[in-house]
Amino acid sequence: MIMRHALMLFFIVAILLGQSAWAGTIYKCKSTQGDLIYQEKPCAAETSSVSSWTAVANSTSDSGAGTLIVGQGNNGHYFVDATINDFFLNFVIDTGASAVTLPQSVAISAGLRCITKITVRTGNGNSQACTTIIQKLKFGMFTLSDVEAVIAPNLNQPLLGMNVLKRFRVEQDEGQLRLSKKY
Predict the structure, then answer these.
(1) Hey, what's the torsion of the CAs at 78, 84, 86, 87, to 10 degrees?
(2) What's the CATH code of the domain at 105?
(3) What is the reported pTM?
(4) How far separated are the first and last CA of the chain, in Å rounded?
(5) Could you tell me if 75 and 126 are in contact, meaning their C-beta atoms sit under 8 angstroms apart?
């Protein structure tokens, strides 16, 4: 609970300071107690690195212009912190997922409801799921509205899929993934 309050305070201070608070690399670390820590310096030896990202603004406008640089996680995946309808979560960037896909528990916590029941084909066979609409999806300096998503009851990790990624230029090189808006 204390960590959640500290995280909220961090985001409030960052918003008040404007874009300059996001100009450098932010490291997401996990302490030996398992708490997530967000900091501007690399993770200490007694913590483990979860992910890191850097926002590089190409413009001073708040229109979503710029490039989001995401560091590769220890397991080879790319993770990005985001909010859906102001609910905080951590996505795996997944070019193999057709759409944004959310665990059922995350969807419920974010106030999302099932619109249409569907059957999806996965690497593990067919599964029941449903569609929904995310009114506001925000990650880095990007905010998207009315994003189609899938709620999957047996999923553990939110996936940022191709229905969002196709809106961006995606470049991967030397352990970094760069996302910039297509124009």
Answers:
(1) -70
(2) 2.40.70.10
(3) 0.66
(4) 41
(5) no
Q: Taking every pair of C-alpha atoms in the chain, what is the biggest distance, in angstroms?
A: 48
> Are 100 and 160 a contacting pair, CB within 8 Å?
yes
> What is d(CA 12, CA 132) in angstroms, rounded to the nearest whole number?
29
Q: Which range marks the domain in which residue 68 is found?
A: 2-181
- pLDDT tens digits along 116-174: 999 888 777 888 999 999 999 999 999 999 999 999 988 999 999 999 999 999 999 98
| H-run or E-run covering 36 | strand 36-39
Q: How many residues does the chain have?
A: 183
The tokens of 16 are what? 């008040």
Name the domain count of the chain.
1
Tens digits of residue pLDDT in 20-45:
333 344 556 666 666 556 555 566 65
- In this structure, what token pair is assigned to residue 18? 């404007």
Pairwise CA distance, residues 166 & 21, whole Å: 28
Tell me the two tokens of residue 100: 């944004």
In contact, 87 and 111? CB cutoff 8 Å: yes
3-state secondary structure of 155: coil
pLDDT digits (tens, 9 = 90+) for 61-86: 234 468 999 999 888 899 999 999 99
pLDDT at residue 127, rounded to an integer: 86
